Amino acid sequence: MKCRIRLIILVLLICLTAGCWDMREVEVLGYVMAMAIDRGPQEQIRIIAQVPNPRVLGGGERGGVTPGASIAAKPYRNYEGTGPTVFDALREISHESSRRLFFAQNRTLIFSKTMAEKGVYDVLDFLKRSVEIRRGLTMVFVARGEPVKILDTPNPHAILPALRIDDIVRWRGQTSRFAPVPLSRFLEALSLEGQEPYAGVIEVASNPTAQVKEGEKAAPEPSSTIRLTGAALFRNDRMVGFLDETETRGLLWVLNEVRGGQIVFPCPGQEGKKVTIEIIRANAKIEPEITEDGIIMTVKIQEEGNLVEVEGPLDVSKPEVIKELDRLHAAAIGNEVKTAVYKAQELGSDAFGFGEAFRRKFPREWKKIKKDWPEIFPGIEVRVQVVAHIRRIGMVGKPPLLTH
């Protein structure tokens, strides 16, 4: 009996012991921080993977000398591979990389404009099947310009371009005028019958503060910088066009993705003067209707903001003045939404999810029209109703010119 009890205890201890059969040493992994996918010659898949250089980063410097080299080394390396498939292109990188690429830390996925226009469905299969890629954290972008240039643009605020992109994404609520979308949501939109996917737009922009003074050999700042701007609209898996920053926020209003930003509109009674409202919170919902005239989509938006700047002598201590400002900045929000809807209907991309909202409310009717929705969407009527409210006016009521 004692032997049996000991055997049972031993078996239980073995079951509770944590194993390390699939352990991977950090020293043999190359942590991919950003990945770009492009089309190479003969329609080959071209992959650029950005991996930190641990020898440089370990020294605490932004630039160092790699052992065996005679010049300063960058704190990262962009590996490039080409092949008929994504996986084959990644394995091509193993011919020059001494570390196995590891994607659990990757947060940026960039499609070239050429790849996006031709269709991304074929390359998405690997991204969906991979157990390493974290689809909820990986943000999807379309590049204006060469992706390899974007991933090799230096910046004094971040050691790696990939980290710079991630930092900008974190502060998207400052304006809500660019639209990074998680890979999980991008894939979900592709699977829905009544909604098209969208992605953020990334580009290399000139740095206006980089000025070379006479006698200096180099500019004090890089001549170019990474910029996130606007959105790219898709029809199925093919990109059909871009939204500018104003149109992008119009899209985000409807999608409940506005996290903050500012609204600027003309100051009432003051020609050439402006009023600025800081967005505090907002929510929106879509209400589909079927009428004799056809399908109508009503977008209802509620927004609250703080008054942060007034140009000109405007007495905001008066309730009627605040009421007028509420009306004006509600109209400004409505104009952004209408502009975005017009552009999306022109491109034929229902990134707003109007079709999906219709399907949820009218499932039987949707079955009859879903095949024709790409032709129906450009002609539907979209109404926008905005209720805006100023919560706080700051430390000043009457401007100085009106206090006497």
Automatic annotation (TrEMBL):
One BP term from GO: spore germination
Membrane topology: Lipid-anchor
Domain Spore germination GerAC-like C-terminal: 229-394
PROSITE patterns per the UniProt record, alphabetical: PROKAR_LIPOPROTEIN
Highest taxon in the source lineage: Bacteria
Entry keyword Membrane: yes
Pfam family of the protein (one): Spore_GerAC
NCBIfam families linked: spore_ger_x_C
Family as reported in the entry's similarity comment: Belongs to the GerABKC lipoprotein family.
Entry protein name: Ger(X)C family spore germination protein
UniProt organism field: Thermanaerosceptrum fracticalcis
Source taxonomy: Bacteria, Bacillati, Bacillota, Clostridia, Eubacteriales
